[in-house]
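INTERNAL AUDIT FORM
Audit reference: QA-55
Scope: verify that the stored structure record matches its stored sequence.
Auditor: D.O.
Record contents follow.
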Amino acid sequence: MAGRKKPDTRPQRGPSENASRAGQAAKGELSHDDIMEASVRVDPDLRSELLWEDRSRPTRGPKPGLTPDDVVQAAIQIADEEGLAAVTMHAVAARLGFTTMALYRYFPNKEALYDAIVDAGIGRPPHPTGPRRDWRAEVTRWAHAKRAMSCARPWLAELPFVAAPHGPNWLSWLEAVTDSLSSTGLSSADIGQMLSVIDGYTRGASDTAISLARARARGTSEQEWAAAVGADLGRAIGDPRFPKFAALLTAPSDGQPRTMDESFDFGLQRVLDGIELYVKSATPPATRRERTAKSAPRATR
């Protein structure tokens, strides 16, 4: 006998909202709400448990001579030394002194091992110490920590974001920045959008630093890396297709050059300036009514 379907207790959308979503669907547009709904209506066929389940013991065979953490740490060492492409089941097994088949007792394929080492490589965000700071200071610390993590493990950037595993460590970074943004008083929908803006800037503005970190890992000096990047940028000079960018390259220095870290922080602060303006303008209606009532002249008797 089939089990009774549980009733949907979530708030229902109004007709106008449903109509709007229907229009978006007709255009093939994906909304932020579509992703949020997918998180609460999970297709079990799409959900991987490998990053969440207890892998302390193998699913079959005798008591192991190694653990899943041994496999993951060995794979991370290879990635740190040679890049993600060098991580193969054979290479990891050879480093551990086991047969390749021994690894398959924990990870069914190389992709599953990739998922594990990427989430382990990301690690957890730094735990705040001392009294809580304002949201801007906390988000600034978070963004710099994530950038430092990405530069320390440049091979993480070798995996396309669309294929990146969304494991517990990945979610812990989102939890940390969401917690900081929660003190702004913004709605959940707005916090979700601001989170995307901050994380998007942090990842995008770290590309150059990650590129330099990868060059260093290959034994390339900073001067050699800068010369190679400069040679590519210099192609814009004299090319009629790129007059504005060429003007930027040839403009005289203002005498206050920023380091790469300073440039990252400059852009980050401008992003947070915009969010702060939005926070100040997005005053809850109840607060606006309260302020209006307080400022209204009292009726005379």
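Auditor finding: record pair retrieved intact. Residues 260-281 form the longest helix (22 residues).
Action required: none
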